[in-house]
Amino acid sequence: MLSNLWKKGTSFLGSEFAIMGGAMSWVSERNLVSAISNAGGFGVIACGAMSPDLLEKEIIETQKLTSKPFGVNLITMHPNLSELIDVCIERKVSHMVLAGGLPTKSSIEKIKNVGIKVMCFAPSLSLAKRLVKIGVDALIIEGMEAGGHIGPVSTSVLAQEILPHLKNEQIPVFVAGGIGRGEMIVSYLKMGASGCQIGTLFVCTNESIAHKNFKEVFIKSAARNAVSSVQVSADFSVIPVRAIANKASDDFVEHQREVIDKYQKGEISKEDGQLEIEKFWAGALRRAVIEGDVETGSLMAGQSVGMVDKEKPVKEVVNMLVQQANNCIENKSIEVENPESK
Fold first, then answer.
1. Where in the chain is the domain with CATH 3.20.20.70?
2. I want to staple 42 with a disulfide (CB 3.0 to 4.6 A). Which of 15, 60, 92, 310 is the partner?
3. Rounded Cα–Cα distance for residues 190 and 178 (Å)
4. Does domain 2-208+310-329 bear CATH number 3.40.50.970?
5. Of the candidates 183, 189, 161, 165, which has an alpha carbon nearest to the alpha carbon of residue 175?
6. pLDDT per residue as tens digits for the range 245-290
């Protein structure tokens, strides 16, 4: 039974289903997070660049909308990380996800000492083992099929690399990146995962505050449209980000070429050139998600976007995944709608 397969995950999260909502900046806020938790999943607030005051308000408002457990995702490079942790402690958050870099042992101990469970991303087996040693309570392994900032390895390869080696550990492991159907969840559970994390499928839900233009692009897009950012020159690094290609994607490539040209002519230093490239996307995600600028904004999306066919309630998405998973386990024939070709 599905309940047995992900029992370790549901026990850890305190939810009916071991389906975590991926923390997506500007999207994973009180409305979506509470809806996921109320539907039996586990919502996660994306703190992103929020100030401690803003995060506190978001937690309070989320707690008004659900009595179920939910988590908070913090970026370890945030300049006010310690204060953000204090807010989570004061507001009695049950789980915290530390992302964007290796957390310090002191940060983990500070969180665990008050009974909050700590989750971290493990992009490799060696780092997974290291995180286990320093006391992390659960791991998330996320492959390059995911939306937003990504690593170089696919979800399926990471799962094969990491899950078999952690089977004898008590630590729960959640798999993320490109998951769009319940059958895929079952396959990872049978490999030893405790649950999954899903982001892209929740963007076009009724409860998501994403702009209608943003949602429309998701509904129209195929998996091949969600591509990784392009780096033009080895002299200037580009952080890999998966997003739906648009005008901004083309403009970014041209912008890099212009910066490279100025650098080669001696008009700017390498450091200033790198800053110019990094500043290109400043505020781009907010422009797309909140303002609906889908031409010059950033359309961060995972490759499972091809399985998003319409706007629907969060509960319907969660129930669909659970039904597909149960059907897979019971070897029932699964009817698949034939959506219009994307």
1. 2-208+310-329
2. 15
3. 17
4. no
5. 189
6. 999 999 999 999 999 999 999 999 999 999 999 999 999 999 999 9
